[in-house]
Amino acid sequence: MERDDVIEYSLDNHHSEEQGKKIRKGIWMVTLIMAVITAVEVYLGAAWRDIFPDSWQSVKWSFIVLTLVKATFIVMRFMHLGDERRNVRAMILLPYGLFVMYLIWIALWESNYIERALNHFL
Amino acid sequence: MSGEASKAIPNEVLWEGGRSPFSVSYGKLMMWFFLVSDALSFTGLLIGYGFVRHSLPVGDVWPMGETVFRALPFVHGDFPLMYVAFMTALLIFSSVTMVLAVEAGHRMDKKNVVFWLFLTVLGGAGFVGSQAWEWSHFEHGSGGYITTSDGEKYWVHNNDHDTDNPTKPDNGFHLVKSDGTGYLHGHEHVEGDAAMALWNKQINYVAGAPYPWSSTGMVNNEYGPAQYANFFYFITGFHGFHVASGVVINIIILLGVMRGVYHRRGHYEMVEKAGLYWHFVDLVWVFVFTFFYLV
After folding, report:
1. CATH of the domain spanning B13-139+227-294, picked from 2.60.120.280, 1.20.120.80, 1.10.10.10, 1.20.140.10
2. Which residue of A has its CA nearest to B268?
3. Per-residue pLDDT tens for B59-93?
4. Model confidence, pTM
5. Alpha-carbon distance B41 to nearest alpha carbon in chain A (angstroms)
6. What is the CB neighbour count within 10 angstroms for residue A119?
7. Which value does ipTM take for this structure?
8. Cα A82 to Cα A76: distance, rounded to the nearest angstrom
9. Model confidence over B118-138: pLDDT tens digits?
10. In chain A, which among 35-64 make CB contacts under 8 A with chain B?
């Protein structure tokens, strides 16, 4: 049971030189991962016509997946949302995520309709 | 990083209820709320982009990033996506220096906060500068276009994108037929004497891709659908505006750090809050990069 009069508070989140070393190591690790992902993306983006000429759909989907991986790293590690309480994470990510999923769905649905109407029936 | 320091907090920094909800300071939580609302603006823009693109027929109508962005400053040749890769790396790097500044702040290490924050400002300024070049290159386009006496339109190309003297010999002068619908990659090419004959039949020559604010503007642009260039300017412009304001905020915070304001306060949370905004700018760019340049 948490005590009400003792509050963990981000203002007092100082850490020692020792802990700092560990945190910095983590930061450089994330940097390396992001750099590698970006390099892969750029290489695929520039050369996919030559390497995978017949599978542009999988290539494009892989871009979206890699982007989501990068975005997760930025939000969780760089913006330290992973270090906040679970409730904070949920409060920030869930309403946004649910709304955006709905928005994407409705945009795809409607644009698909417009595409068919304009290009196949008119 | 939670769970390290647990001690009673003086009343003047607590919220009205006598404690801080979720163990987050007021400033940080409000910054998160602002970022969520800002994220919704960018989401709306990118989904709008996707909507327009998806409502057009599949094929060569919509330009692909790697066929549009293939130039580097000061060098001639074909480097698809290299410049935007450089810009992305610059922004991610400046995001990393920002985390390092925040980390140094947790150790109350003023010297290192100044160092990393300064690098962050440099990276951000470099990004804004790069975007200026990107825009001017996009506006300049890869050539000009002519309208012939038959009323047909052709894009004028040569190797070094010389728009003043496009027919210079041995410079790969050629024309690309434009039907006003799609991006000119994949359209019919006219070369040699046939191209010269059409060039001599011109009644009108416009050098460079038309500026977006001219009367024909985005309608007659070599990138195909007018919305492509519209979205390009609006989305990268809106993002660039965020980067520019982020640089200004970082400079203000940097001055505060140098004057020791946050050190006297006993914590560097201000750097953390500015950092949240700065990482958000990087986060948005990751999505712009994917949906504008890659997909």
Report:
1. 1.20.120.80
2. A11
3. 667 888 887 887 788 777 778 889 999 999 999 99
4. 0.85
5. 11
6. 13
7. 0.88
8. 4
9. 999 999 999 999 999 998 888
10. 35, 38-39, 41-42, 44-46, 49, 60, 63-64
